[in-house]
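Troubleshooting entry. The earlier prediction with zinc ion gave an output that would not parse, so I re-checked the input for stray whitespace and re-submitted. Clean input:
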Amino acid sequence: MTVTDPVERAVIEAIDIRGLLAFLSDLVAIPSLDGSLGEVAAQEYVAASLERLGCEMDVWEIDFDELRRHPAFSAEAERQRGLGVVGASGLGNGPTLIFNGHVDVVPAGDESLWRFPPWQATIADGFVYGRGALDMKGGLACAIFAAKAICDAGVRLKGRLLIQSVIGEEDGGCGTLATVRRGYTGDGAIVVEPTELRIAPAQAGALNFRLTVPGAAAHGCVREDGVSAIEKFFPIYQALMDLEAARNAAARLRDDPISRLYRRYTLPYALCIGVVRAGAWASTVAETLVAEGRYGVAVGEDLEAARRMLEEAVARAAQSDPWLQEHPPLVEWWGGQFAPASTPIDHPLVQTAAAAFADITGAPAVFEGMPYGADMRLLVNEGRTPTILFGPGDVRDAHRPNERVAIADLRTVTQTLALVALRFCGVA
Ligand SMILES: [Zn+2]
C-alpha cells in the first residue's frame, strides 16, 4: 500500500472487515429473489444499517404504475411492492459520488448442486459462499463499509456520498431507474458489480427476446403427418449462432478505446438461448416451440438496428424452409432490455478509481469492458452520471451453484472505494 496521507490512512485502518462479513451474512440469509417480498426485507435491512451509520435516509415505496410508463423501464417479475433506499453523507459543498448496489438475486437453482446451503453465508477457504454473496450483496457491503470507515474515522466529506441500494437489477433495473427518477444523480457513480477488481468504464447491452416457432401436431406414430416445431428450430438456432459469430468478428475489427476494452473476450457480445419449451406430450409431434434468450449489444450500437439484425437473421432462415415461409417464426422483445453504456477513460472518476486501486494494491489498475448488462446504463443514459463498474469477485461465479466472493477482494474493494470517496468528494 502506498497511501501516505494521514486522513486516508486513518480511514483505511477504520475499515471493519469483521462487521462487513456479519452484514453480508445477514443479507445473504434474506432470499431477495426478484419480485419477491424478500427484496423489501433486504432493503429494510440495508436501510436500517445505513441509518445506524448516521446517513440521512430516504426510503420510499416505488410507484410502479408511474415507473412502467418510462421508456427505459423493463421488468420480468410482477411486483406488488418495492422500496427505494438512499443513504447520504457529507456536506454537499463538493462533488457528489454514488455507490450503487442491488439486493435482488437470481434463484438458487438445484440446491443439491451447492457445496453449502445457498441461503446461508458460509466462509470457507477465504471465500464467502451463498446466493448473492458475489452478485452483488458483497459489493454493496463494501460500499456501505467504506462509508462506515469514513464515518468511524471521524472524517466528513466536503461533497456528498450517496449509497443507493436497489431492487430489480437482474430483471431490468427498475430499482435504479426509480432512484434516478427520484432525482438521485451525481458527478460520478460506481456500480459495485463483480469485475475481478478491474475498472470497467463500459458495459455491454443485453436484450431479452422470445422466439415462437410454429409446427403442426400429429400422433407420434405418424409423425410425418405433422411438422415438428423442434426440427424447425434447428436451422433458426444455427442462423442465430452464425449471427453471433459475425457480430463478434465485426466488433473485433473496431479499434476505438472502448472497443479495445473487450479484447480479452472471445465472445464479448454473446447470444445465448437459455430456455426452450416445446411440445405437450411425448407421443405428439411438437406443435410449438418457444425459445428465450439474451442478445449481446456492443457499446455505441443502436438498439433498434441490433434488434432488426436478429429479426432479419430469423426471417432469412425461415425463407429457406417451405413450412417456415408459410408459418414464419415470431420474434418478441420482452423483459430486460439493457442498453450498453460507457464513460470516457480520461474522466476524473475513472482516473481517481484507477489511482486509488493502484495505491491500495501496489499494482496498476486494469481497464476492461464488462460483457454483461448492468444498472450502469441507467445512471449514464438516464441520470447523465459518469459511471464505472468496479467490484469484488468474478462474474463467472455468479448465477450458478457455489456462488462465492473472495474475502481478500472484499477488503481491496472497500479500501479502494473509501479512497475514491475521500479523493472525489474531498475532505471537509
Ligand atoms: Zn449483479
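This one parsed fine. The first strand starts at residue 56 and ends at 61.
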